[in-house]
Amino acid sequence: MQQLIYFIRKYRYFLFFLFLQFIALFLTINNNAFHKSKFVNSANDVTGGFYNKVTSISDYFNLTRENNELINENVLLKNRIEKLNALLDSSKSISVIDTVYNHQYSYISGKIRKNHYANKNNFLLINLGLSDSVKTEMAVVNSLGIIGITEKASQNYTRVQSILNQQSKINAKLKKSDYFGTLTWDGKDYNIVQLLDIPRQAIVNKGDTIVTGGRSAIFPEGVLIGKVASVEQENTSVTRVINIELFNDMSNIKNIYVIQNFHKKEIENLEKDDE
Amino acid sequence: MSSVRIYLWLILILFLQIFVLNNINFNGYINPYLYLAFVFLFPLKKNRFLFLSLTFLYGLALDFFSDTGGIHAFSLLFVGYIRLFFIRIYFKKSEIDYLLFSLQKEPFGQVFNYTVTLTVIHHFILMSLANFSFQNLGSVILNTLYSSVFTLILYFLGSFIFRKKQTS
User: Fold this and answer.
1) Do B77 and A20 touch (CB under 8 A)?
2) What are phi and psi of A59, to 5 degrees?
3) What is the pLDDT of residue B29?
4) pLDDT exceeding 70 applies to what percent of chain B?
């Protein structure tokens, strides 16, 4: 007995140490066992209260980021509302007053009913027609870029000449430098369209963004088209062909907007006077 | 250092660890564990029950905040227990010197050895327990090394900046 007491006295720190270590080890194992810690976790009043306080302070540092996220989410939700409207098959007009170019455009949302992209001359069919005030020669776009031009409208449907059509000729320009050319398609790859007639002095680099030029009365200026994939220059010819990779995946599009230009007639009348 | 000052420092370091250092995640996973300074700062005493209990509670407080079971308590307590052994080895001190012992008065080389040893031991135990398996031993060792360097830099910087001026 005396020896036991002597032993305990001699090794009291070590025994105490072992005792505490066992508690700690037990807590650790318990924490790892079923991922549910009964004793040690931060979900109690004290630690939770501290974390609450600190988060309420650190939240201030993230306000800018949070705001940006909220703005992005707002945009997303607005777009989703637009898509839902399209799903309801009831077309709805949104008026956009373009103060920079002083055109007034009206966006009409619709859905693609039929989409061809493998032919040489491709056409789309959309669920908007004369009853939705969609007429011939109006721009068809979606959020990623241009899709085509309305060609023939019936009461409830409209045929759209896709940009993947060898007849299609759309005024386009370099986003950075305002040099403009004509957008055509050679009928080979549905992801690649061609930009012709860009002046020789224009510097074109791979990856440059191409947007619509706004010289026609159909497309507003600055609608996205694609980015430069490669530049083909034949030594003998003066012209060069710029291959453009479309932002849109033309094989996978559903919701579109038809853009109505209220000043179109006015512009065309003026241009007629010139001739 | 008076004991009140030390307790204030320790509480400050605890909160610094919980709310700042635990969230550094340098390179994705490397954090300094400056709360180990508890073991370096706490004065030596003949009766070790208080010190051992406090290391345990200090580590446990950290565990509560970081949801880690008992790994901080375990590793800090371990280092707290073996502290005397290394003090005897590196500084050649016996029980009589405990009262006047202070790391600030010792030559830097020995202090460096002492802190590095304890830090690496502590971090290795901590990382092993956090890993909680015998796999990924390489990442445990790597993590130990990186975090140790991080902790030591912070500790030496802190102890240099807040060094009490020697009264000559």
Assistant:
1) yes
2) -60, -35
3) 72
4) 95
d(CA A189, CA B17): 59
> CA torsion B105→B108→B109→B111, rounded to 10°?
60
Q: How far apart are CA B108 and CA B87, in angstroms?
A: 14
Place of tokens 């996205």: A224
In 3D space, the residue among A166, A141, A162 whose CA is nearest the CA of residue A151 turns out to be A162
Q: How far apart are the CA of A39 and the nearest CA of chain B, in angstroms?
A: 8
Q: CB distance B49–A13 less than 8 Å? A: yes
- Just give the CATH number of A89-274: 2.40.10.340
Q: Are B69 and A47 inside 8 Å of each other by CB?
A: no
Q: How far is B82 from chain A (nearest CA, A)?
A: 10
Average pLDDT, chain A: 78
- Does ipTM exceed 0.90? no
Reading the block at residue A32, the tokens are 């790892």
Buried b (16+ CB within 10 A) or exposed e, B85-112: ebbeebbebeeeeeeeeeeeebeeeebe
Q: pLDDT tens digit string along B81-132? A: 999 899 888 888 887 888 788 888 888 889 999 999 999 999 999 888 887 7
Least confident range from A104-113, A143-152, A184-193, B146-155: namely A104-113
Of A21, A42, A46, the CB nearest to B74: A21
